[in-house]
User: What shape does this take?
Amino acid sequence: VFDVSKPWLNRMLAMESKRFLTAVDTVDFDIPKGKTFALVGESGSGKSTIGRMIVGLQKPTSGQVLIDGEDFFAIKDQKRKLAMRRRIQMIFQSPYASLNPRWRVRHIIGEPIRAFELMPAGEVDKRVAELLDQVGLAKSDGEKFPHEFSGGQRQRIAIARALASNPEFIVCDEPTSALDVSVQSQVLNLMKTLQRELGLTYLFISHDLSVIRYMADEIGVLYLGRLVEVADRDSLFENPRHPYTRMLMDAAPHIDAFGRTAEIVSGEIPDPIDKPKGCSFHPRCTLTEDRCRQERPAVREFDGGKAKVACHLCTA
Ligand code: SF4
Ligand code: MG
Assistant: This one.
């Protein structure tokens, strides 16, 4: 379904995953059905790795991915594994690399339906037409090839393909960051509408706080593979508690406008393979004390459980 057998996509995945084999550690969050949980962090924080492990594209070196309490990578029965995969789909960052350039759009969108054997072959085209309509494309667009579409339209095609297997959960990995600002909000609005209509649950991965503020119900701030703050949207934006969350926000001056990139933060993200001791943020933190260099801060709850923060100094 994710075309992992296709060389161009394999290259893309290999490129991204190489560095982060040991990068994600103790990441724990719940997403209520029908809601959006956003993961934010700089590139190199491990966001995409988490997304790919959830959809089964990348196996954790240790630990498990539990879906309804069941360890996905331990399932031996291929039929059951396929049934599990059907429920969880992914929309990738690049609408250019994630669609097979040699397939007509109706073939691309129909592939999951065939792969999961969801309906008789004769009914697939009708379903594809429905999906095209659902994402705002015309039935005749199914006859075209990906290169005939703009970036925004391609991402609509990717969304239709993700919806084709009737998933419950979609991992959206920077779905609009490759798009023009004017197109971003249209795609985000489409995703919101689809979520409402179909009761979808999203894990939304982005480095862009303005996009996250628009999309998320709850937010996890990821730093070097660990969640340093998890809070509901209002709590996080009104009162960012972790020094790293504050640093990200200071770097995004216009958090209400679309299309901001929040990459201008002070200092460099350390090598995820060689994490600093204690609090891994200490080399960049302005509040660092001795114990920050020695002790890894525990996760503590604030605001009646609405925020969880891993920082020695956080008090309220
Ligand atoms: Fe900064 Fe210390 Fe808090 Fe880490 S634990 S974020 S170094 S104050
Ligand atoms: Mg990424």
The mean pLDDT is 84. The chain has eleven helices and ten strands. Residues 94 and 174 are 8 Å apart (CA to CA).
